[in-house]
Design goal:
The complex is a heterodimer of chains A (114) and B (112). Helix content of chain A is 0%, strand content 54%. Chain A contains no helices and 11 strands. Chain B is mostly beta strands and 112 residues long.
Chain lengths: 114, 112
């Protein structure tokens, strides 16, 4: 089974801190994604990566950056955490093959910025 | 803006009844997917339907796709309390599969 693992389930950080959210997948997927989920807004794409060292902005990249140094690992960085970044963060990976794009998700990290 | 828009936002039914959720989207797609999310957890893939398919079944799930109306529906038959979850549709939009774009979801509550 595909496994996507996020480093923390719950995280509390202070305003202004630099925050790292880590995600690791074990199925050699090319694509990896970071979403944030807020009530009533569904999942919004922050960044995605389709290869090592490649990254593309999603719909809400402001205040975030990402790093993909190895194929299996995709990190989300909050450069200076703010209270409006309190949210559930979901990492996903997928294998793009013949247009089939089933995504596998991690369990989520609930981040609170105080 | 979101690609997928689910309807209704919330649905409450009795165990044993059928649940129908709808999804509308805006751009052309290669495929449409449905996911389930139990409270506070990650999403789990349920079913994928390609743009050249009209209907697909998986166990108690039935998905239809109408590309002319840019809409899809998810039917869960003989619902169970364990089906209580949020359901999301997702599409690859016009990105060739590099992005998966989600709607806001339908919250389903099945009463025992």
């Amino acid at each position: 089974d595909v496994k996507v693992t996020q480093s923390s389930r719950y995280l509390v950080k202070r305003t202004g801190e630099k925050v790292f959210l880590e995600c690791v997948q074990d199925m050699d997927h090319e694509n990896m994604f970071w979403y944030r989920q807020d009530p009533g807004l569904g999942l919004r794409l922050i960044y995605f990566s389709y290869d090592v060292k490649m990254k593309e902005k999603g719909d809400i990249p402001e205040g975030y950056s990402v790093s993909r140094e190895k194929k299996e690992r995709f990190s989300l960085i909050l450069e200076s955490a703010s209270t409006n970044q309190t949210s559930m963060y979901l990492c996903a990976s997928s294998l793009v093959k013949l247009g089939l794009t089933e995504a596998f998700f991690g369990q989520g990290t609930r981040l609170t910025v105080v | 803006s979101q690609q997928g828009e689910e309807d209704p936002q919330a649905l409450s039914i009795q165990e044993g009844e059928n649940a129908t959720m709808n999804c509308s989207y805006k751009t052309s797609i290669n495929n449409l997917q449905w996911y389930r999310q139990n409270s506070g957890r990650g999403l789990v893939h349920l079913i994928l339907i390609r743009s050249n398919e009209r209907e697909k079944h998986s166990g108690r799930l039935r998905v239809t796709l109408d590309t002319s109306k840019k809409s899809s529906s998810l039917l869960i038959t003989a619902s169970r309390a364990a089906d209580t979850a949020s359901y999301f549709c997702a599409t690859d939009g016009d990105t060739g599969g590099f992005k998966t774009i989600f709607g806001a979801g339908t919250r389903l509550f099945v009463k025992a």
